[in-house]
Amino acid sequence: MHELGLCTEMVRTLEDLMKEEGLKKISKVCVDVGEITGVLPRFMEECWGPACEGSPLEGAKLKINFLPAKAVCRRCGEPFHPEHGKGACPKCGSELYDLENGFEFEITEISGE
After folding, report:
1. What would you measure as the largest C-alpha separation in the chain, in angstroms?
2. Buried b (16+ CB within 10 A) or exposed e, 41-63
3. I need a surface site. Which of 13, 41, 69, 110 has the fewest CB within 10 A?
4. pLDDT below 50 — which residues of the chain?
5. What distance, in Å, lies between the first and last C-alpha atoms of the chain?
6. Per-residue pLDDT at 3
């Protein structure tokens, strides 16, 4: 379960940010998580509380924005979900495509004082 390691690293990063910005407490953290990362939001939510224990983030709420994968066919330009197309464009059958999103992992917003 790499979600615990990710949460622990997020807490460290946010603690550093708190020092830089002079914040005393963070009450909410929003994060974008792409489908292709393999991160499971349910496990991340379960790990968040324990990762925050004893830190200035203890009690902070975690909001996860799960971003589905999106591919675009290089041949015809059709957007599709790569898994639904089974590795090929559902419109023209080409197996050449670019992934446009789904691999993000980014803290996008924090609320604090």
Report:
1. 55
2. eeebeebbeebbeebbbeebebe
3. 13
4. none
5. 32
6. 95
